[in-house]
């Protein structure tokens, strides 16, 4: 049973009365302005004026000003029901629960408040939009006037006159819709607007988790390591952005309700240099290397693989998987993954330890490993540099890696596979022009360094 | 443009570019890395810039590996952005404050390319790559400027632009990719995890049928800590519920959705261009994952490409990481 004319009318009248009372409360009872105000807040007078002022504001879901406060252009009313349903997150996800926003002259916001007036569970605007006869009739006794008023109010969601507009300060990106980026005719110009309704739903959740009592209690329980019946929600590296500076109401009504705060979730990459590295103390770094979780997992996997497959002893083969292409592929993948880990491990020491760390009297690390892991020492230590340039160390490091791996695998690895690899390539990656060695050489020459440092080319000829 | 990755004959690699003041606010809801749409846009702009030189190169896709970053934020319980003071406007008033997030980045860009370069020798290919790198160095990358290359690093890790021809043989292709990806260590590549958003929504809906994509997306964008078990001292150990093997999962913008019809060229006031159809859009969001390059098995897992479906109002960037999952998350 829909509400009747008197229900609508009394709700509207109460709304107007309330606003009048608030105005009068600020004045002395004998102030001459009081009479003028009472006149202004007559039911019909106020509604007529409201119907005029409603054109200064617009009901929207997507706004332009958060992109730039000085941007002037179209804001859109595109509620979720009008949007296509994609698997990604967009405003369409708010179907049936979105909050409308209002942009325009803040002085006309009281009209929006009137239209938001809840009558029997629905807003006055919804009733009017459906053309409910009692709601329309409640606006005025004159049927024509009532219709004119209703039409004006419903127009709040209409696009502004003058057609669609963008602005210099609006975001506008060219998007290629064909397959030839050189053809100007294959682009669309896309102008992203701020999804204010969606932002509001997101803000509600984030703000509740940031300031809400429930999440605070959960955090306390987590810190105290107590049991608790609610989860604790945490948002790593959450950032907050202010929209509209000190005047969030200039952006939009919902932005004002959010205090101009816009939360930004983090897409930051991980930080690679996570743990502190100390100079290795032993004669070899491979034991240290072997303690890394990923390395341990790989070695374990490789050993398991080499031991697992059915032994084929008919022709006197050693136990282990058959020596076919499939086996080799899997084994090579393990090798390659281990070498990846080795390169990463080396990089970590090279980049994080201070140059010359291997020159310290306490350092007992094998020379080849020093040359591998302390390359910056070349810049100050000519003898060290000469050994580095001689390039014997990559193969030696490779041999030491093979020995270490064989020990881990309890000799299950067919010897010779690993040390046959081109360790220069594995550890140096770049053998071409302008690598670090070349750079180093040039630098030395510029400093008028002793001439006995062999060039990379000379080294290559000699080997 | 299609929903699948175009075939590539090769990879053009621009290693360790140093980008200053790139845009750190990638969308109204995310910060911390430029949007992948910025790199797709860069690829198109690059191909247009190179057009005059008639290079035998067609750009199909782009991969991004981040080696280092410094976001210009103030730390705190929530982070805020360090603002810049901008020149006064024509009326002599301070301009409206617009918070721009900025960050410095060291990136390796990997372009999936095709074209006549496969016929060239290594030297000519190297020159080609140099030429692209030079062009790129005067362009904006995600709003930031490209700084001159850093000094070579020890071990002679490859820092030169490089154009690698991909073999037709899948085994050989995998081997050469393996060598390449080692040069991208240490670093993290951004890949798409649309699959997790869809499957997580499905899982949540089994318990709560009215779960929205927003709920599922937020649930995967945060850590939900719950009491798990007691330790020996009777203290409760809390654990979060991130899906196993998903590593560093992050919310990212992936493209745009139309908010209405396409406006004919010239019909929208103050549009940047009056010869191009215009459309109001909003951002679309999904999930990405930062993954170390040595966890990638094929170039296809790294590369992003544009998938434009204008009739459906759908403009987005795709990456096929989840379509080729074998081995990527385990040995």
Beta-strand proportion of chain A: 5-15%
Poorly predicted sequence stretches spanning 5 or more consecutive residues of chain B: 326-331
Gap from first CA to last CA of chain A: 98 Å
The count of β-strands of chain B is 17
Q: What is the global morphology of chain A?
A: elongated
Strand content of chain B: 25-35%
Percent helix of chain B, as a range, is: 10-25%
Decide which structural class fits the backbone of chain B. Answer: alpha+beta
Q: What does the average pLDDT of chain A come to?
A: 84
Structure explained in plain terms:
The complex is a heterodimer of chains A (463) and B (331). By secondary structure, chain A is mainly alpha-helical. Chain A is built from 19 helices and 11 strands. The longest helix of chain A is centred in the last third of the chain and has 28 residues, at 325-352. Residues 310-316 and 448-463 of chain A have low confidence and may be disordered. Helices cover 21% and strands 35% of the residues of chain B. Chain B has helices at 36-50, 122-137, 170-183, 194-207, 213-221, and strands spanning 10-23, 25-27, 30-31, 58-71, 73-74, 80-81, 102-114, 140-141, 144-147, 162-165, 188-192, 223-230, 236-240, 248-258, 278-291, 304-309, 314-319. The longest helix of chain B is centred in the middle third of the chain and has 16 residues, at 122-137. The chains are: A mainly alpha (463), B alpha+beta (331). Chains A and B meet through β6, β7, β8, α8 and α9 of A and β3, α1, β4, β6 and α3 of B.
